[in-house]
Design a protein that fits this description.
By secondary structure, the protein is an alpha+beta fold. It contains twelve helices and 39 strands. Helix 4 runs parallel beside helix 5 and helix 6 packs parallel to helix 7. The longest helix is centred in the middle third of the chain and has 17 residues. The radius of gyration is 25 Å and the shape is globular. The two termini are 31 Å apart.
Amino acid sequence: MKFALIALALVALLVPAKADAVAEIASPGKVLAVQVRIDGEGKASYSVSRGGHTVIAPSALGFLLTDQPQLKRNFAFAGADTASHDDTWEQPWGEWRFIRNRYNELRIHLKEKIAPARRLDVVFRVYDDGVGFRYEFPEQVVLKNVHIAEEVTEFDVADPAEAWWEVGGDWNSYEQLYQHTRLDAVSQAHTPLTIKTDGGVYIAIHEAALVDYAGMWLKRIDGQRLRSVLSPSAQHAAKVVRTAPFTSPWRTLIIADSAAGLYMSHLELNLNEPNALGDVSWVRPYKYVGIWWAMHLTNWTWASGPHHGATTEHTKQYIDFAAANGFKEVLVEGWNYSWDDDWFANGHSLSYTQPYPDFDIKALAAYGKAKGVKIIGHHETFGKVDNYEAQLSGALDLLAGLGYDSIKTGYVADEGGLTVLGEDGKLSYEYHDGQALAVHHLKVVTEAAKRHIAVVDHEPIKDTGLRRTYPNWVSREGARGQEYNAWGNPPNPPNHESLLVFTRMLAGPFDFTPGVLSLTGKGGQKIQNTVAHQLADYIVIYSPVQMAADLPENYVKYPGPFQFIKDVPTDWSETRVLSGEPGEFAVMARKDRNSNNWYLGAVGDNTKRRVAVKLDFLDNKHHWVAETYLDAKDADWDSNPHAINIARRAVTPGETLTLNLARGGGAAIRFVAK
């Protein structure tokens, strides 16, 4: 790996008498450029162009504070620094093994022209496929303790555009159906927010490295001008309270000429700090089964009683099934006191060290070890963060002592309904993505890392690429997953995954829990997929930990499709998005990190669709056999969802395959190198 951090003369100072531009910088390949302006009132703004065409029109920078005057006017340009960086780093696990990090950096120094002459830096990193910028508060006597009421960061999209988005700050954190509207019809949106201009430029707005800070939503102000809105705090009048020096998260813009280009960007990961944990060889991708789907079907219960799911007997059965079919872990939910409470109204009686009497935690850990299978710990909090943190050390010690190497955490609660113990010793009610929860999640992740435990969290804070810095933070929920196909009203629509690829998946891994081959939810509710679509989810919805979510008896019933689930890996050396459009279709190929084999997944929408796929990702060093799992001619999610053609045939590099996707359909292919 090569590393270079070289100061370059990349800033052009622009000082004509009437001009307000003070600095600009281009990406290494001169694809994108950022320009910074200061107007006559001392207000700073930035703009972004692509190929000389404005993509983001001049957009405001700055802050509102709760205890000092605003930090958004009376600024003077106090200089700039530049740098260039180009290196390649290795992911311990992921969609790509090696990632190039190449950018030009511009650091703008701002200083108020009037007392108290506070200082603020804005740092831009400009890549050929995107821009990241953040605020840096230097140490200064006049602004030591910073109480942020709001950012006034804006994103003014220059050209008419459409958008795919979900409401920010809604009660059902992140778990909404995506809306597809014109950009000027957006109200308040979560990030990532995906945009396509009428000229064919794709933009994704998000954030990276969300640490000790409130998460950002986007509110449309007028036209296509979006402004940041920080998630609230109940502990303070300010939404963020920090002590200088500190930095904000990166505000990110991926900019591409195709939807595929959005997913292929490494911007989010590159803007995070390198691995802070040292040797993380103990973090291993895997597939798992679990005591989970039966509860969503109401066959079993999380609570104790005659239909309790998390029993010693049931867990042994799942361990046996996992061992027989090559799964490394078994998730068990509902093992601990006391799931009998009302999840939203109560939850402070939950214990993370006391199992129900019918769950022999020590015997089951030993039973699994003898079979080569580990149990995934489960820590549902019902949003009672104070209760969980009080027990965290003991709970993690218990699991580590039993040989557990993963936990799934949960934060089932309404927005603004998570209880956190404040500095004053009083409980406050917080949002899932407020500053308090950003601090809490990193506490869980770092404490788990001390014990060599990986973390998968549901009802989480959004993913902002922190898996680079903390590689034991392996996956999370943060969108509508498979569970909505059990009881959702409505269930996930046929185009759900083709939307997720170009929206939620731009943030990072998703514990979607695919593989329900029965295609039925609670009360026989139809899942709006074909079997081939469920298989394709293992490719298009990335997670280093993937569940085979269905009941074991259904895998016995459908052995053909089940073979693909057993074969597909969860760790990749390379990923290519071959084609796709948000909410229409997505076609993706990934190369196994531990072999020469490639895997292809394609998902569609509620229409029949024909997709051509050129096999130019296969090399000429091997002979290739394609094991295909394709929608049958008469397949349809509503009328004939189990119709699938499973076959093997030789293929050649560069050959073009035609995939015929049914309504709600998909395709899954394993390319075996001989």
